[in-house]
Design goal:
The protein is α/β, with parallel strands linked by helices and about 775 residues long. Helices cover about 30% and strands about 20% of the residues. Helix 14 (about 375-385) packs parallel to helix 15 (about 415-425).
Length: about 775
């Protein structure tokens, strides 16, 4: 079918300056603004399924495993297929731009949106993101990569300042975006936070220098919802599209900037060309249909690939149907399948673990096991101990509550009653299989006392069915961890969750950190067990060209059962010329191996596998000298290794502080970090006080005035409808409402908070009560 292309230059010449200014912002919550005959691009969230609202009703869609689980598949082909499937659902519903994937690095295990992100490793995150983007865009729907950049906590998420040194920024936090941009995503979304003192929405360094000049990106840059604080500054910095509509709150500032020459009509035209190209490339009215059953099967396959068998003592799993099985834990009735917030979809179905067992014809006895009520727990414990007598296996479902956007995880602890129950059962000699639901690592003080641990995580609408099939041997487990499971978070330091967060650890995140400080972890990056015995027999490395290599490893499946293995290639810089992690992932491949057979796996490494960011040259450089190429089944299970010689352009050395030889976070000082940062560590910016408030202030800032106090009180009262005080949902509601800039509250309220109310509140907070009241009572939008 042929579509008439948009004549962009003709359209631009026909717009008035007022129309051009209006097109710099969205139309409502989910559309671009369509001036004249220009159609509107429709957007929807979509990290683990299409999240779309039609009027007051949520539209059902396939709920896939979260990104945090899909990364455990280590399978770019799977991510491409899921992206394609989401694109087909989007096309059928008239969605033109899918706001996914999220690819920020998991800097800290308590990060509240870690469940939306792939990995602690940039190569794994970036390659999976690239595949997902390609899959989405194969359907004609645009993909939007987010959140650019260093968006690694939810505390003070609209204000936090990520202080990151140049090498960590380029080699770790920007690297996934650099890889994803190679797939030419239709859009890149800037983050809420500041990076090194500047809001990402106003960072010319990110939006122009890195994205366009260094990487050659030609698509649209779009704000996260409500991330714009000053539209004129963000426009000058290279932000094309503000979302959602700010309802005119920045109009006067834009006109003033245009009048004074701070922005020009040429800058506006350049921006609108990219927005119109987006319209031209992705706009399509709803068309076609999708096969919901086929997507359900893909969802199951994704869950099978992503669930990780963490422990299997003496081959206790798989169980058999003729065993006497006791199932324990209220999460067996309704385990979480996804997180909360903008990624939350309305699934076509939600199979519980008990549903899955019944569907597979497995007879079990069930006990609830635990609750939030301590007095009730004693009775529930007694019921479990009685029901477990004579059982061949006790399957215990545990996990933290589902995570949510807007709030970081409180701790790595499971609810105390769950730990107590596992200890009681294992202490009584029962053969316990723990199924871990929820988001990411938790403490497991009982690890060595249980027979098996299966990480089901947040695995989508049929994830429980996939987990059941692994437990009972219908499928061979094949997932591998995309993040480290630490013993606890005691050694991760306190540089997390503040208004200013100094990334003192620099390059040493995840497995790289634990390698550097020589600490044991609970389960290492890349870990995952199989029911088959796979051996790594031979390693051969061939030089292909100038600093490029082909890594060949021979694998043998010594079992009768077919299996999958994920071969991981790490590179260790032995030159000693610059600060480096002990090793870092540079390649991987997931392969199928038939029972009693041998395969040869080939993984290519190009020169980028050996490079470091040379800030002095503003380019990547190669250290000259020896490198070790390590091949393993996890970051802690290296099977084979060989040395290679790199002919590099960098032959000198860069000194670094002694503290970074064993970079325990709590021992790293501002002075140590300043050497890597290249400047003194900037102080934390204090929140505004009376007389200093602007539309960038939040409700928590202005609660010193009467209306501010009323609003803060109202927020806490309304939060009770989300959940009880102290719960994830309650705290997420409060944090989002109290710590969102007043300009963003107005833009994201759907008309409930008018711009004049926000501006009037600012005036009142600055001590001008009656002026603020007068502004609030105006019927027209304020002219600032």
């Amino acid at each position: 079918m042929e579509f008439e292309r948009l004549d962009i230059e003709k359209a631009l010449s026909a717009f008035t300056i007022e129309e051009k200014l209006r097109m710099l912002s969205g139309d409502g919550m989910w559309h671009t603004y369509g001036a004249g005959e220009i159609p509107r691009v429709k957007m929807s969230d979509g990290p683990n399924g299409l999240r779309m609202v039609d009027g007051a009703s949520a539209v059902p869609s396939t709920c896939y495993p979260t990104a945090s689980m899909l990364a455990n598949s280590w399978d770019p082909a799977l991510l491409y297929n899921i992206g394609s499937a989401m694109g087909k659902e989007a096309t059928a519903l008239g969605v033109n731009l899918l706001l996914a994937p999220g690819i920020n690095i998991k800097r800290h295990p308590l990060g509240g949106r870690n469940f939306e992100y792939f990995s602690e490793d940039p190569i794994l995150a970036g390659t999976l993101a690239k595949a997902f983007v390609s899959g989405v865009q194969s359907t004609g729907v645009g993909a939007c990569v987010k959140h650019f950049a260093a968006n690694n906590q939810e505390a003070y998420r609209m204000y936090s300042d990520s202080i990151v040194d140049p090498r960590a920024l380029r080699e770790l936090y920007l690297k996934p975006f650099e890889l994803a941009v190679k797939a030419e995503p239709a859009a890149v979304m800037c983050a809420y936070n500041k990076l090194n003192g500047k809001y990402c929405s106003e960072s010319e360094f990110l939006l122009k220098q890195v994205l366009r000049d260094d990487w050659g990106y030609r698509g649209v840059t779009v704000s996260d919802w409500g991330a714009v604080r000053n539209r004129a500054k963000s426009l000058s910095a290279g932000l094309d599209l503000e979302m959602p509509s700010s309802d005119g709150i920045f109009d006067a500032d834009l006109r003033l900037a245009l009048k004074t020459g701070a922005i020009t009509e040429g800058t506006i035209d350049e921006t609108l060309r990219r927005t119109l190209e987006l319209v031209d490339n992705v706009y399509l009215e709803p068309c076609g249909d999708f096969d919901a059953d086929a997507h359900d099967k893909l969802c199951y396959a994704a869950a099978v690939d992503s669930i990780v068998l963490l422990r299997n003592d003496n081959g206790f799993l798989p169980l058999t149907k003729n065993m006497k099985i006791t199932v324990v834990g209220e999460l067996a009735e309704a385990a979480p399948i996804q997180g909360g917030g903008s990624s939350h979809v309305t699934p076509f179905k939600a199979v519980s673990p008990l549903d899955a067992l019944a569907e597979r014809g497995i007879e079990v006895s069930y006990c609830r096991g635990y609750s939030d009520n301590e007095k009730e727990n004693r009775k529930l414990f007694d019921e479990v101990m009685s029901a477990a007598k004579g059982a061949d296996a006790v399957i215990v479902y545990v996990g933290q509550p589902a995570p949510a956007e807007g709030i970081d995880r409180f701790s790595l602890d499971l609810p105390a009653a769950q730990d107590e129950l596992i200890n009681a059962l294992s202490g009584a000699g029962h053969r316990v299989v723990v199924v871990l639901t929820g988001a990411g690592p938790v403490k497991m003080p009982w690890t060595k006392r249980v027979k098996a641990i299966l990480y089901q995580g947040l695995c989508g609408q049929v994830g429980a069915l996939a987990a059941t099939d692994i437990i009972f041997g219908r499928v061979n487990p094949r997932g591998r961890l995309a993040e480290t499971f630490p013993v606890d978070d005691a050694e991760l330091g306190e540089d997390f969750g503040g208004l200013r967060t100094v990334y003192r650890e620099s390059l040493f995140v995840g497995y790289k950190y634990y390698d550097a400080i020589s600490r044991r972890v609970l389960f290492p990056f890349g870990h995952g067990l199989s029911f088959s015995d796979i051996s790594y027999d031979e390693l051969h490395i061939k030089r292909l060209g100038n600093n490029e290599f082909n890594v060949e490893v021979t694998l043998t499946n010594n079992s009768v059962r077919d299996a999958y293995e994920t071969v991981q290639v790490y590179v260790s810089d032995r030159t000693g010329r610059v600060l480096r992690p002990e090793k870092q992932l540079e390649g991987y491949k997931k392969v199928f191996i038939e029972g009693k057979s041998t395969v040869v796996v080939e993984i290519k490494l190009d020169k980028s596998a050996f490079e470091f960011w040379n800030e002095e040259k503003h380019a990547f450089s190669l250290c000259d000298g020896e490198y070790r190429i390590l091949v393993g089944a996890s970051a802690a299970d290296i099977k084979k290794e060989m040395s290679v010689k790199i002919d590099g352009d960098f032959t000198s050395r860069i000194a670094y502080p002694e503290a970074y030889k064993v970079p325990v976070r709590a021992k790293l000082t501002d002075e140590d970090f300043a050497v890597l940062y290249g400047a003194p560590v900037p102080p934390e910016t204090p929140r505004p006080v009376k007389g200093e408030h602007t539309l960038d202030s939040c409700v928590n800032d202005v609660k010193g005035c009467l209306v501010g106090r009323i609003m803060a009180s109202t927020v806490k009262r309304m939060a009770k409808s989300a959940g009880k005080k102290g719960s994830v949902d309650y705290e997420a509601f409060v944090n989002n409402a109290l710590y969102t800039p007043l300009s963003s509250v107005a833009s994201m309220s759907g008309g409930a908070v008018m711009p004049q109310l926000a501006l009037g509140l600012v005036q009142m907070a600055n001590g001008h009560f009656f002026r603020g009241l007068k502004t609030m009572l105006k019927k027209d939008k304020p002219n600032r």
